[in-house]
Amino acid sequence: MPLDTSIEHARSLDADDPLRTFRDRFWIPQSSGKQQTYLVGNSLGLQPKNVAALVTEELEKWQTLGVRGHFESDRPWLPYHELLTPTMAKIVGAQDDEVVVMNTLTVNLHLMMATFYRPTKTRNKILIESHAFPSDFQAVESQIQLHGFDPKEAIVTVPHGAESDLLSDDAICDLIEKHRDSLALVLLPGVQYYTGQFLNLQRITATAHRYNISVGFDLAHAVGNVPLQLHDWDVDFAVWCNYKYLNSGPGAVGGCFIHERHATDKSLPRMAGWWGHDKASRFQMENRFDPIPTAEGWQLSNPPIFSLAAILASLQVFDDAGGMGPLREKSLKLTGYFESMLKESLGDRINIITPQTSSQRGCQLSIEIATGDVQGKEIHKQLEESGIDTDWREPNVIRAAPVPLYNSFEDVHLFVMTLKQIVDP
Ligand SMILES: *Cc1c(COP(=O)(O)O)cnc(C)c1O
Fold it and tell me: Is the pTM of this model over 0.85?
């Protein structure tokens, strides 16, 4: 049956969507009094309306209680981060003792490498993808240098010619086999930021573990987007930011997963700080370090409470939506509709570089536009002028991410129709 490309059909899909009311729980950005069509939740998630109340609560506590805010009220600051753990653990498929909300992504990546990248003369290589996010590459390169090795020799990259090429799970596993005696760490994305490809994290982890190689994942584009089972997949560590699909605000505190097998091991070397020290004796101010035997044992400092309050508000929305199960269910429909609409309306004027198989992607589609006259960047600009927020990535891709919590089938319809008009006036 041909796809019904009418607006009425999009609206009927929205009417059938059990999560449709969640859109009202977010502030949708406006320009000239009109709501934007916001398809950049992969870059900065929208603000849930309950954020202001929870952040204000902490501002007021600071006003009225001062330092006593650490211990008094319903949500004392001292254990505030613990409030975030249960929902965050569910979102990444972890146990509570494996997850901690702290720092930001790149900082956590360094902390994790301090523990899990322990190079020796013969085993000192790190496997990453050749188009890794710059911060990940820079973190890896500098860690290798810190240990006195040469990045030119110690970085093994999974080749993919152009940015738009997909990674092959086979190629990754073959490369691990090939370098099995010299690799110390495999560090890959959960969902690749440029193409939107969701890698087979379980298979990659199992392959690396066969040769005692540690495995870490950067989940910046995976968390809150695709289903994860970090504990069962036996991943060693993972890091993520909370401002993309987790809607917790610009520069929000990030998240970190450390598998129970390691998290409970107090003998593991690490960068230490007082917030990772045993809670019972933390305030005795002794100069010894007794790590908390959970992921919290990697904390350094007391965290910024206002950011944690925004994360708490956002996680409440995830809980109310029923967690990743219902969200993924809607996401598959929404992005499936998006893909069909693009193909039906634009045919070979566009090339979707994101995998066609829904189990190999999240909500984002990355679109190359095969036009003679109108260049991709110009198209992106015209979309913006029409009130549609997408994201432009050099050299040649428009990324658009319909987020199941706040995007509608009508949003997708409007985007595709506007794009069609720009490309094919
Ligand atoms: C967004 C993103 C980051 C951001 O790092 P910060 O330390 O939070 O600034 C890092 N890596 C990837 C893959 C990302 O998508």
Answer: yes
